[in-house]
Design goal:
Structural class: mainly beta
Order of helices and strands: HEHEEEEEEEEEEEEEEEEEEEEEEEEEE
CATH class: Mainly Beta
Number of strands: 27
Strand order of the largest sheet: 1-2-4-7-10-13-16-19-22-25
Shape: globular
Radius of gyration: 22 Å
Distance between the termini: 92 Å
Number of domains: 1
Number of helices: 2
CATH topology: Pectate Lyase C-like
Strand content: 25-35%
Length: 315
Amino acid sequence: MLREILIIIVFILLPLQVWAACTDQGSPYTYYVSDGGSGNCLSSGTPGSFSDVWSVVGPGDTVIALDGDGVYTGSANMILPPAGLNRSNGSPITISAETDGGILLDGQDTYNTVHLTGNDWWVIEGFNATDSYNQAVYRISSGSDNNIIRRCIGWDAPPDPGAGGHGIFSTSGANTLFEDCAGFGQARKTFSSSQAGVDSNNTFRRCWGRWEQYATIGPKMTLTMEYNNEGLLVENGIFSIDPQANTDQDNFGVVSYDTTVYGNGSLLGSIVYIENGTTLYQWDDGIQLGAIPNFTLKNVAVYIGTTVSLTGYSI
């Protein structure tokens, strides 16, 4: 009788274990998540959610986000690891879309989409993201260092200045690499490295950006090379302004800078263009970098269309 009771208990509990929250398997290991997943994260057939997997990821682990229907919504399904979850050089945590471009992280102007805060040594790759709630679509906050975001596309930063609407790809950490990324749509700045201080040494490599619109005040540009940061490297990029954009006196051009510059930045092997039909105001320009000390500008092409309208400024 006792034996039969134990067998019944085992068969009752076994399914609970299979479908329990993500189960730690040690490191390195590959876990699986999906939009609304509630499994143990151990296979593509039992995916959990991003909010569940953070408790088990360790050095060298990989998290595969399954394509599913292609759209992730809700805070539990955004890339928002808890503050202080760090790994180490040579053993980062890698978050990958199952198929490059197969997943859209839709913040619906309500949730942050990708935000690292106090997180070191992370790799995020292959995602699309839009309509984040606070600051930027892909945001790396101060104190998050040695992180990589690659093969990602983002558009439409938060529209509300009260929510800190700022940019598409933004870092205030050090040694950040944005690689093979594209940004466009609503944003005060499409690509931004700022508030990281001296020796921040961030990189934008093979990125495409187009500034399109932002209704509120504040310096606007496609790429900011300097704003309380040092040693930014931009290489093999393409940057522009949408000719239909409503630029104003706060638009600082395609590639520019803000206040407090430390210098030692580089813009290499890139293309900057302003198309025909674009209206430029007093501060608009293709490249405006004159006040940055020890700046390297090499193998850069600037194109300004023949029908660009100039207001209060000459190029």
